[in-house]
Specification:
Strand content: under 5%
Structural class: mainly alpha
Number of domains: 1
Shape: elongated
Oligomer: single chain
Radius of gyration: 25 Å
Helix content: over 70%
Order of helices and strands: HHHHHHHHH
Number of strands: 0
Number of helices: 9
Largest sheet: none
Length: about 240
C-alpha cells in the first residue's frame, strides 16, 4: 500500500489559485485590413465579370458572323480576361493571407477570453485547415464556429454556414471557368465559360459579404471583452467620472 504522501505527489490537488488569463490583444486593426482586402477582392471579381460579359457579346457576334467584328477586338478581350484573371488570383491570395492572420489572432484571443472553452482543432489548423485535402472542406467553418462561441458570441451558425456554402460554390464555379478557358477551344465553349464566370459573381460577392460580417462580429466581441478586461465595472472611465 502506497504512503499517503506518495499518492499526493503523484496526484497533486488542483491549484486553488490558477494563473490569471492571458492578455487579450487588439484585433481591430487586423479586422480593418480584412475588410479592405475582402472589398478589393470583390471589386476585382466585379471587374472580371464585366469583362466576361463584354466577351460574351463579342463571341456572340463572332458566332453570328458579324463582319464588323475585328481581330483586335477579340485579342483585346482575351488580354483583359487574362489580366483580370491574374488580378483575381492576387486579390484572393492577399485576402486569404490577411483573413488567416486575423483568424489566428482571433483564435488566440478567444482562448484568453474563454479559457474553459473546448476547441475542436488546435491552433496549427488555423493554417493547415485551408490546405489539407478533404479537411479543408470542413475544418475552417468549425474553427470559426469555435472562435465565435469562445469570443462570447451567440449561435452564429446561419452566418457561418452561409459563408462556407457560398465560398465552396464560388470555388467550384471558379474551377469550371478555369478549365473551360483552358480546354474549351471553340467559340461556343468560351462563351459558356464566360457565362459561368458572370453567374459566379453572385456567390463570390455573397461569400465575401458573409466573411466581412463574421470578421466584424468576432472583432466586436473581442474588442468588447478586451475593454471589459482592461476596465472592470468599477474602473471604467465613464463610471470614474461620476464618482
Amino acid at each position: 500500500m502506497r504512503p499517503l504522501r506518495t499518492l499526493c505527489d503523484m496526484h497533486p490537488p488542483a491549484n486553488p489559485n490558477p494563473a490569471p488569463p492571458s492578455v487579450i490583444r487588439p484585433i481591430q486593426g487586423l479586422g480593418v485590413a480584412a475588410y479592405v482586402t475582402l472589398a478589393v477582392a470583390t471589386i476585382v471579381n466585379v471587374a472580371a465579370a464585366l469583362v466576361s460579359a463584354v466577351r460574351i457579346t463579342l463571341l456572340e457576334r463572332y458566332l453570328a458572323g458579324d463582319p464588323e467584328l475585328t481581330q483586335d477586338q477579340l485579342t483585346n478581350s482575351d488580354n483583359l480576361t487574362t489580366a483580370t484573371g491574374v488580378g483575381q488570383i492576387v486579390a484572393l491570395v492577399a485576402a486569404g493571407v490577411v483573413f488567416t492572420v486575423w483568424l489566428w489572432r482571433a483564435r488566440v484571443n478567444s482562448e484568453a477570453i474563454s479559457p474553459q472553452m473546448f476547441h475542436r482543432h488546435g491552433r496549427s489548423w488555423v493554417i493547415l485547415g485551408w490546405i489539407v485535402p478533404i479537411g479543408n472542406l470542413v475544418i475552417p467553418p468549425r474553427l470559426i464556429r469555435d472562435v465565435w462561441r469562445a469570443s462570447g458570441g451567440g449561435p452564429g451558425v446561419g452566418l457561418i454556414a452561409a459563408w462556407w456554402l457560398f465560398w465552396l460554390a464560388d470555388l467550384v464555379l471558379g474551377r469550371v471557368v478555369s478549365y473551360g478557358y483552358s480546354s474549351w477551344d471553340t467559340a461556343q465553349g468560351l462563351r459558356t465559360a464566360s457565362l459561368i464566370d458572370v453567374y459566379g459573381l453572385a456567390p463570390a460577392v455573397i461569400a465575401a459579404g458573409c466573411a466581412a460580417a463574421i470578421v466584424l462580429r468576432i472583432t466586436e466581441f473581442q474588442e468588447n471583452a478586451r475593454f471589459m478586461r482592461m476596465f472592470p465595472p468599477l474602473q471604467r472611465p465613464e463610471m470614474a467620472a461620476q464618482r
